[in-house]
Design a protein that fits this description.
Blueprint (H helix, E strand, L loop, with lengths): L13 H22 L4 H29 L4 H24 L5 H34 L5
Length: about 140
């Protein structure tokens, strides 16, 4: 399954968009590796990297929100924490398997890819618009 960053995921904030591109690339690499029969160890390493990069990205994104005084910060942060928990649960699930199987890949697609795309298109776009208005008050 090809997973790519496209125009429907553009938020308009270059920092957020570049980080989303990297995040989506890494998720795509994980799915491709699993579908091609890569071993359990490699899949766990990719999940660990995804966990680290997600933490980096969410921290950066939340700092932008704090700096701009984003009013829905608490809810957005909560959603990030839920996503990070999902990554940990997927790692635990994979550790119980002999290797990545179809059920694991399906879970990644629904619990990571689908969630992330919905989150970017709604919540992150809202954040980027708010930050843009905050940084450019004359455009209102």
């Amino acid at each position: 399954m090809l997973i790519e960053f496209d125009d429907t995921l553009v938020t308009g904030n270059s920092t957020i968009d570049e980080q989303h591109k990297e995040l989506i690339k890494r998720i795509g690499n994980l799915i491709t590796a699993c579908e091609e029969g890569d071993g359990k160890v490699n899949a766990i390493k990719m999940l660990d990297y995804l966990d680290e990069y997600t933490d980096f990205h969410f921290t950066a994104e939340e700092e932008l929100q704090k700096k701009a005084g984003y009013p829905d910060y608490d809810n957005h942060h909560k959603k990030h924490e839920e996503f990070k928990e999902t990554i940990k649960e997927l790692t635990e699930y994979l550790e119980e398997l002999e290797g990545p199987n179809k059920d694991f890949v399906d879970k990644v697609k629904t619990e990571v890819v689908d969630w992330l795309f919905r989150h970017i298109k709604a919540a992150d776009r809202s954040v980027a618009e708010y930050i843009n208005l905050h940084n450019n008050p004359d455009i209102v």
